[in-house]
Amino acid sequence: MRAKVCGLSTPESVAAAAQAGAAYVGFVFFAKSPRHVPIEQARQLALDVPVGLCKVALTVNATDAELSEILDAVPIDMLQLHGAESPERVADIKTRFGLPVMKAVGVADADDLPAIAAYSRVADQLLIDAKPPKGADLPGGNGLAFDWRLIAGRKWAVPWMLAGGLTPENVAQAVHLTGAAQVDVSSGVESAPGIKDNDKIAAFLRAASGEK
Domain range spanning residue 23? Predict the structure, then answer.
């Protein structure tokens, strides 16, 4: 089981994710999010990430100039596109910036599943998340889950990660129902929006890997 802890903003939470065995750490570059980190702060956090831990930049409908500004300053290993980027835009970003790209796809019902297949043809990885409510300010990190049975046993052409409403209490069930080999958590390991709880991070990683 490979897990990503997203929305990190302090050296302590980065260290907690690394110590608990996370495979990815995520930094949010989206001003509306309570997890947003300024570029210089993200740079300092990223420089302290242990070698071998994948550093992911979450962006939302970012322009080339905005992506360049992030990547010029922060040592990032993967881009996570969490907006309404089209498959063509995903392919363009991959080519232009030369980094692996993970595309988030929101799911509410079966009508949303064809989009996953479309993005699997251009992205390096997929993040299958709960679709945000209409009018929501945030495209993710809302603490919502979707009906995991919709994707149970499904396979796509690239690796995928389950997200959306995952917590230390439900992640084992989510993995069992979906067959996910990777999971992503953000709000589910927080004591308040944007404030990570290091004990919850450790508990999530234990539960995700099947430990009691």
Answer: 2-208
SS3 letters for the chain? Answer: CEEEECCCCCHHHHHHHHHHCCCEEEEEECCCCCCECCHHHHHHHHHCCCCCCEEEEEECCCCHHHHHHHHHHCCCCEEEECCCCCHHHHHHHHHHHCCCEEEEEEECCHHHHHHHHHHHCCCCEEEEEECCCCCCCCCCCCCCCCCHHHHCCCCCCCCEEECCCCCCCCHHHHHHHHCCCEEEECHHHEEECCEECHHHHHHHHHHHCCCC
CATH number for position 73? 3.20.20.70
**pTM for this model (two decimals):** 0.93
Q: Which residues form the catalytic set?
A: 6, 129
The tens-digit pLDDT sequence of the chain (212 residues) is 999 999 999 999 999 999 999 999 999 999 999 999 999 999 999 999 999 999 999 999 999 999 999 999 999 999 999 999 999 999 999 999 999 999 999 999 999 999 999 999 999 999 999 987 665 555 555 556 889 999 998 889 999 999 999 999 999 999 999 999 999 999 999 999 999 999 999 999 999 998 76
Tally of domains within the chain: 1
